[in-house]
Design a protein that fits this description.
The chain is globular, with a radius of gyration of 17 Å. The strands form two sheets. A ten-stranded antiparallel sheet has the order 7-4-5-6-9-2-1-12-10-11, with no helix packed on it. Strands 3-8 form a two-stranded antiparallel ribbon. It is mainly β and 236 residues long. Helix content is 8%, strand content 28%. It has one helix at residues 2-20, and strands spanning 44-48, 68-71, 96-98, 103-109, 131-138, 141-148, 160-161, 166-169, 181-186, 201-207, 213-219, 226-229. The longest helix is centred in the N-terminal third of the chain and has 19 residues, at 2-20. A hairpin with a 2-residue loop joins β5 (131-138) and β6 (141-148). It has one helix and twelve strands.
């Protein structure tokens, strides 16, 4: 599975570079078709991700350039209770995950186990993204929610979902070293062949170092920030 994954990623990288050459979409040039909210409730920490090379999830991989990894932390900066030896110890594990916009579910996976050993990659994982939900929001605009908890996916292919609707729960499936949400937008319904799209989120709050909140009508969360949907982001 590791070699197949490497081959699939290499194939997708090559095809994306041939497709776009010097015209890769950027936050400045790309115009999203839809309006998208953060795919969760409450404050989550941006563990990885941002719109530039310094903060990007994986700038050199076109399929994950604008992807995000989100976790939940406490006031002490920890992402888990007790010793963090079980997935259930982590604040993010089992947290509801939401559709970022209206759309049609294209594909799901719901039977991949959650790695029982946080801190290590599951040697028995047969998919790097584990359980997931892939939603089509428009022509060449798809959202991917990955590493979901086994058995938690609540939607089926072909089902219409609304923005803010719960589609599953955060888990530790696939190549995941701790329970977290891997989220990104793609221009194709394939995690290996699709191109990562620089789509901003609407209506969210940033928690600053002094504890104050900053409202962001439209923008990109950045690695190290705590963010949550605002009332605008929740569609109220």
């Amino acid at each position: 599975m590791v070699w197949l994954t490497v081959l699939a990623q290499a194939t997708g990288e090559t095809l994306n570079r041939l497709r776009f050459w010097r015209n890769l979409p950027t936050p400045r040039t790309y115009r999203p078709q839809g309006v998208y909210r953060l795919p969760f409730q409450g404050f989550w920490l941006v563990a990885n991700g941002g719109p530039d090379p310094e903060t990007s999830h994986s700038w050199g991989i076109l399929g994950q350039r604008y992807a995000y990894d989100f976790v939940i932390k406490d006031s002490q900066g920890k992402t888990y209770r007790t010793h963090g030896r079980r997935p259930e110890d982590y604040y993010a594990f089992g947290a509801p995950l939401l559709a970022p916009a209206d759309g049609v579910v294209v594909r799901v996976q719901n039977r991949h186990r959650d790695c029982p050993w946080p801190g290590f990659l599951d040697p028995f994982a047969w998919s790097i993204i584990g359980n997931y939900v892939l939603i089509r929001h428009g022509e060449r605009e798809y959202s991917l929610l990955a590493h979901l908890k086994r058995g938690s996916v609540r939607v089926k292919p072909g089902q219409w979902v609304r923005a803010g609707e719960v589609v599953g729960e955060c888990g530790n499936s696939g190549h995941s070293t701790e329970p977290h949400l891997h989220f990104q937008f793609l221009d194709r319904p394939n995690v290996f062949l699709g191109l990562s799209l620089p789509i901003p989120f609407t209506g969210f709050l940033r928690r600053k170092e002094d504890g104050s909140l900053e409202a962001t009508p439209l923008g990109f969360p950045i690695r190290g920030e705590e963010v949550a949907p605002s009332e605008q982001g929740l569609g109220r």
